[in-house]
Amino acid sequence: MDREQLCGRKISCTLRYEIVLENPLELQNLLLQIEDINDNSPQFGNGVVYFEIRESAGKGARFAVSQAIDADIGLNDVQSYTLQKNDHFNLAVHTNPSGRKYGELILVKELDREQQKEVIFVLTAVDGGNPKKSGTVSIQVTVLDANDNKPLFNQNIYKVSIPENSPKGSVVVIVSATDADEGANGEVTYGFESFSTRELFSLNSKTGEITLSGLVDYERESTFELSIQARDNSGLTSFANVIIEITDVNDNAPIITLMSLTNPVPENVSPDTEVGIINVEDTDSKGNKQVHCYIQKKIPFKLILSVKNYYSLVTTSELDREIISDYNITITATDSGSPPLSSSKTIHLSVSDVNDNPPVFEKQSYSAYVTENNKPGSSMCSVTARDPDWRQNGTVVYSLLPNVVNGVPVSSYLSINGDTGVIHAVRAFDYEQFRSFKVQVVARDNGSPPLSSNVTLSVFITDENDNPPQILYPAPEGNSLMTEMVPKAALAGSLVSKVVAVDADSGQNAWLAYQIVKSIDPGLFTIGLHSGEIRAQRDISESDNMKQNLVISVKDNGQPSLSTTCAVYLLISDNLAEVPELKDMSYEESNNKLTSYLIIALVSVSTFFLTFIILIMAVRMCHRRKPRILFDGAVAIPSGYFPPSYAEGDGTGTLRSSYNYDAYLTTGSRTSDFKFARSYNDNTLPAIQTLERSQSEAFEDDLLTEVREI
């Protein structure tokens, strides 16, 4: 550290520094005082000093010697001069207006040019340091004729001011000195006493004009002090000081320095969080160094002046990396000069990701349709969820929420690819077992902690025509043989019987069509295509065969269609006495015991009815006689026999409620069944009353009817 280079001739050399401490933010001022040490020797401007002294000079004549310059100050500056011993001169030490010491030669013995033309001796300058340092100059005196007046400046100190950045060649000041002598002895020349400022200033030796030879900068040096000497041709000299003050110009833009920065910044930082410290300096002075600092708008950051010239960069709102992941923050500083100067600095700030977004499914719910009897392992559908977070926070893994469907874990039905979201069927489905179910699909990210969301997947099983029609009435062969009795007086269009069938499939796969595929007399009976009602196609005649066997085909509407056949046995007769053999229609091998059992059963029932005939006739005198139907074992087909999925109505293959059936026990009922059907279309009871009568009401009506018939 060189004090002379930093502070020059200033008495006090003080350097100011500012120290910024973080966490917490503090500003400390450091004042560094540099003390001088004796590291510079006194130096004279020239190696040889020439004097021309007239021989007429009397004793006591004085001749000033150029002062020695010591870059040190105070005691380390030049303190004394010593003169080499000679016969003519002594040395006197004086102090000039600037406080520097210089030597003056005193003539103690008159010169005699004829005896000695030149006198040469050495002058030594000594400083006051420890150890002391010195510098020497050789003085060469040429003896001339007499000159008894030295130049005099019109003022001892010149004070001027110039703006910094003044161009080279600008005139700073003109110094002037006069000599009372005449002729050549009165001619004055000017020169710098010190050679340290010659790079910045130049001096016209004839006119005394001082001009700029370099550029001055207020921020580097604000004051210059020049020592000017005026000398006549005889060597008589005088001195004057020129003090030059440099005025400040707003020529320095503010300097923006990034002291610290938190980068990247987590997106979940709270508002007013400090993310950086900025220092702004302007080397100009006074109003030119007043700085206003700001950043562009529409970003979630602001600058807060914390301590002198230091700003804190803080957040103004919450950050969201999924919207903006990087910010280029441009900081602009403008001073108060005229015209103002400004500078900018751009800071790149990244926002780091935080797992703050759960995966979001593309749809609010998903539906998958799979045909029954599907192949296990086949893909059904896929779900997709998006997570706007980054890297592992945005990686989505799919799974099925554990649940039970029809008493079975959902994993027994479905599986899901955790990476792609493709859902596969684990097993084959059966539409007839269940038609739909719902599962919850979970999308979870890999953040810490992980976030997840659910979506409902509805699985619908579509029907396939894999069930043939099922005959409910008449009962399949082998269980019970049913024979329908048709009155001989039946007219065309009369309802003879009805085939009731259902199909476990649904939709068009369950639409049934009935058709007679085989008949003893093809033109005698017809069947409804969709109702299954067997009606007389023409009036029954005596010539018609008493035994009529029909083979009915029931076919569904699936692709391909499935069908089932059944046999319907019809007996054209008005009473049982006309039937020679009850079993001839279906069994060639008749058992005679069956007829006996049938007769015994009929007589038993008749006897039971006669017991209550008087009471019943009193109550039911006006009861209208109705034809009845004989059922197998006195058992009717109730509405509850059908599955709940088979609704009443034409064309569905079900038994309509517009038909009423009453049952009778007949002789031989254990081996033979006789049935008779008649439509009540003309006078039909409401469906809710037809098949829902209580057992006691049905039994009471049967008793009255049989009594009338008997």
Q: What features would you describe in this structure?
A:
The structure is a single chain. Mean pLDDT is 78; it is low at 582-590 and 623-710. The longest helix is centred in the C-terminal third of the chain and has 20 residues, at 592-611. The strands form 15 sheets. A five-stranded mixed beta sheet has the order 42-45-46-39-47, with no helix packed on it. It is rod-shaped, with a radius of gyration of 66 Å. The protein is built from five helices and 47 strands. With 710 residues, it is mostly beta strands. It is 7% helix and 39% strand.
Strand order of the largest sheet: 42-45-46-39-47
Uncertain segments are 582-590, 623-710
> Main beta sheet: strand number and arrangement?
5 strands, mixed
| Global morphology | rod-shaped
The secondary-structure class comes to: mainly beta
Radius of gyration: 66 Å
The tally of strands reads: 47
Mean pLDDT: 78
The amount of helix comes to under 10%
Q: What is the helix tally?
A: 5
Terminal-residue CA separation: 148 Å
Measured by DSSP, the beta-strand proportion falls in 35-45%
Keywords:
mainly beta, rod-shaped, 710 residues, 39% strand, 5-stranded mixed sheet, disordered C terminus, 47 strands
What's this model, at a glance?
This protein has 710 residues and is mostly beta strands. Strand 43 and strand 44 (533-536) form a beta hairpin.
